[in-house]
Amino acid sequence: MQKNNNLNVYYRSTKKEKIKQKKNKNNKRGGKIEEIDLKELLKIFWIKKLQIILIILIFMGIGVIYTVGFKVPLYSAETTLILASQNSNQSNSNTITTSTATDT
């Protein structure tokens, strides 16, 4: 009978260890669950706002320099708009030409 009790105790202890190991594998932080505090996150962003703005401006500048200086437009379009007059006897037609649009 004592042998059976020892097996039950061993089985229960190994089962608990397996559960702990699964939890540790899921958390990847030694079993501790970390919480994300939204106030702390916003506080960090507020403190680093100058760096964030500077990085955004640098990459915007790089994009503008690339677009204006290095990228050649592949397509261009031009539109002419002819306005019809109410009097059909007029030989003078009014035209408006829009500026040329290019697309890269």
Notes on the structure:
The chain is α+β, with helices and mostly antiparallel strands and 104 residues long. The mean pLDDT is 75. It starts with a helix and ends with a strand. The chain has helices at residues 2-27, 38-47, 49-70, and strands spanning 75-77, 80-83, 94-97, 101-103. It has 3 helices and 4 strands; from the N terminus they run αααββββ. The chain is 56% helix and 13% strand.
Brief characterization of the structure:
The protein has helices spanning 2-27, 38-47, 49-70, and strands at residues 75-77, 80-83, 94-97, 101-103. The protein is an alpha+beta fold and 104 residues long.
Q: How do the strands of the widest beta sheet line up side by side?
A: 1-4
What is the H/E order?
HHHEEEE
Strand count, sense and closure of the main sheet?
A: 2 strands, antiparallel
Structural class: alpha+beta
Average pLDDT, rounded to a whole number, is: 75
* Count of helix runs: 3
Total beta strands: 4
Percent helix, as a range, is 55-70%
